[in-house]
UniProtKB/TrEMBL annotation, chain A:
Region named Disordered: 79-149, 184-204
GO MF: unfolded protein binding
Taxonomic lineage from the root: Eukaryota, Viridiplantae, Chlorophyta, core chlorophytes, Trebouxiophyceae
The protein's name: Vacuolar ATPase assembly protein VMA22
One example of a Gene Ontology biological process annotation: vacuolar proton-transporting V-type ATPase complex assembly
From TrEMBL, chain B:
Keyword field contains Translocase: no
Keywords: Hydrogen ion transport, Ion transport, Transport
Originating species: Chlorella sorokiniana (Freshwater green alga)
Name recorded for this polypeptide: V-type proton ATPase subunit F
Source lineage: Eukaryota, Viridiplantae, Chlorophyta, core chlorophytes, Trebouxiophyceae
UniProt keyword Ion transport present: yes
Entry function: Subunit of the V1 complex of vacuolar(H+)-ATPase (V-ATPase), a multisubunit enzyme composed of a peripheral complex (V1) that hydrolyzes ATP and a membrane integral complex (V0) that translocates protons. V-ATPase is responsible for acidifying and maintaining the pH of intracellular compartments.
TM helices/strands, residue ranges: none
Similarity annotation: Belongs to the V-ATPase F subunit family.
C-alpha cells in the first residue's frame, strides 16, 4: 500500500510540475501580448486604472466529483439608471400598465434583425389587439376616476412604451456590434427590459452607467488585436490553473496516504519489538 | 462569510502584481460587490507585508473562494503563512510573475513533497 501511495504521489507531482511549466509559458505569452497592447494603445489605457468599481465574476469554479471545473456564466444584462428609473415609473403606474408594458415589449417588432424578428413580428401582430385593449382598459380606469386624465394616461403609456422600445433597440445594437455574440445577446437583451421592469435586482439600483458584458471592453470599444491575443493567452492560463489545482489536490491526497502508510508501518515495526521485550 | 449561491460556483481569488491582475481579470474572474469587497489584491511597491497577510487570511477564510493564486515573489514575503497553511480548500497556487519565473524549489507544496520523501 505504501508503494502505491508513493507512486501516486510521484505521478501527481510530475503532473503538477508539467502543468506549472505550461502555465508559465501561457502567462509569458500573455504578458508579451499585454506589453504589445500597452505599446499600441498607451500604458494608461491598459492598466488597473481602467478597472470598473463594480464587477461580477463570469468565470467561476465548480466542484464535480471532487475535481474543480471552470464554468463560464453569462454576464447579467446591466442597464443604465435612466432605464431602471423608467422601469420603476412604469411599475408605479399600476398593474395594468405593467402588463401592457410586458406585452408591448413582446409585440414591438425588432427592426435591427430581420430573421429573428419574424417570431417577434408575429407576436406583435397577435399582441396588438391585446395592447389596444389594455390601453383602452387603462384609459377606461382613468376615466372612471376623471374624464380628461384618461387621454393623458394613454399618452403617458405610449411614451413609456416608446422609451422601452428605444432602450431595447439600443441594447440589442450594442450587444450585436460591441460584443460579437449578436444573436444570443440580442435575445437576452430583449428580455432585459421586461426583467428590469419587473423590479430589477439589487445591483441595478446602485449602477450609474451601463457595464459592458466582456472585461475586454473595459479598455475601450475598439481595442488592439494584441489585447485580444492577451485575453486568449490568459484564458488558456486560467484553464491550466484549474488543472494545476486539481493536480495539487491529488498530490496532497497522495502525501496524506503516504504519511498514513508510513505511520502504520512504523507502528507495525514497533509492535514485534514490544512483544519480544515482554 | 459569503457562501457560494447554489449554481453560481466559487470564486478564484488573487494576490498578484498589476500585470498579472490585468491579464487575469480579462478572463472574467474579478468580483467587486456592492460593499466593495473584492476577490483580488493588486500588490505594488507601496503594499505592506501586513496588508498582504491580511488579504491572505481573508481569502483563505472565505467560503466562496476555491483557489487562491499568488505570485511566487509575493508568496516569498508571507512564506511563514503558506508553510503553516494546511487546509485543502481553498487551494493555494503559486504562479510566476512577469519578472520572476516559477521556481519549484520555493513552492510550499513541493517542499512538503521533498520533506515527505526525504523522511520516508
Amino acid at each position: 500500500m505504501s508503494e502505491s501511495a508513493f507512486e501516486e504521489a510521484l505521478d501527481a507531482a510530475q503532473e503538477y510540475l508539467a502543468l506549472q511549466e505550461a502555465l508559465g509559458a501561457a502567462l509569458r505569452a500573455g504578458f508579451l501580448s499585454l506589453a504589445q497592447a500597452r505599446y499600441s494603445m498607451g500604458a494608461d489605457r491598459v492598466s488597473a486604472l481602467q478597472l470598473p468599481a463594480h464587477m461580477t465574476a463570469t468565470a467561476r469554479l465548480q466542484t464535480d466529483q471532487g475535481k474543480l471545473g471552470l464554468v463560464r456564466m453569462e454576464p447579467k444584462a446591466r442597464l443604465a439608471a435612466s432605464s431602471s428609473g423608467t422601469s420603476s415609473r412604469s411599475s408605479a403606474a399600476g398593474a395594468a400598465n405593467d402588463s401592457a408594458a410586458a406585452s408591448s415589449t413582446e409585440s414591438i417588432p425588432d427592426s435591427a434583425d430581420a430573421a429573428p424578428a419574424e417570431d417577434k413580428t408575429n407576436a406583435a401582430q397577435a399582441a396588438q389587439p391585446a395592447l389596444q385593449a389594455a390601453a383602452q382598459g387603462s384609459g377606461a380606469q382613468q376615466q372612471q376616476s376623471g374624464g380628461e386624465p384618461g387621454d393623458v394616461a394613454a399618452l403617458l403609456q405610449r411614451m413609456q412604451l416608446l422609451a422601452q422600445q428605444s432602450d431595447s433597440l439600443v441594447d440589442e445594437l450594442a450587444a450585436k456590434y460591441c460584443s460579437g455574440d449578436g444573436d444570443a445577446k440580442a435575445s437576452g437583451a430583449a428580455a432585459a427590459p421586461s426583467s428590469s421592469g419587473a423590479g430589477g435586482d439589487l445591483d441595478g439600483e446602485y449602477e450609474e452607467v451601463a457595464h459592458p458584458s466582456r472585461p475586454l471592453h473595459w479598455f475601450g470599444s475598439l481595442v488592439a488585436p494584441s489585447l485580444r491575443d492577451a485575453e486568449g493567452h490568459f484564458c488558456r492560463a486560467l484553464e491550466l490553473v484549474v488543472q494545476a489545482a486539481n493536480a495539487q489536490a491529488a498530490l496532497r491526497r497522495g502525501l496524506e496516504r503516504q504519511r498514513a502508510a508510513a505511520a502504520a508501518g512504523g507502528e507495525a515495526a514497533a509492535a514485534p519489538g514490544d512483544g519480544a521485550a515482554s | 462569510m459569503a457562501a457560494p449561491t447554489s449554481g453560481e460556483g466559487s470564486l478564484l481569488a488573487m494576490i498578484v502584481d498589476s500585470d498579472t491582475a490585468t491579464g487575469l481579470l480579462l478572463t472574467g474572474v474579478g468580483q467587486v460587490d456592492i460593499r466593495k469587497r473584492t476577490n483580488f489584491l493588486i500588490v505594488d511597491d507601496k503594499t505592506s507585508q501586513a496588508r498582504i497577510e491580511e488579504a491572505f487570511k481573508e481569502f483563505t477564510n472565505r467560503e466562496d473562494v476555491a483557489v487562491l493564486l499568488i505570485n511566487q515573489v509575493i508568496a516569498g514575503m508571507i512564506r511563514h503563512l503558506l508553510d503553516a497553511y494546511n487546509k485543502p480548500v481553498p487551494a493555494i497556487l503559486e504562479i510566476p510573475s512577469k519578472d520572476a519565473p516559477y521556481d519549484p524549489s520555493q513552492d510550499s507544496v513541493l517542499q512538503r513533497v521533498r520533506f515527505m520523501f526525504g523522511e520516508s
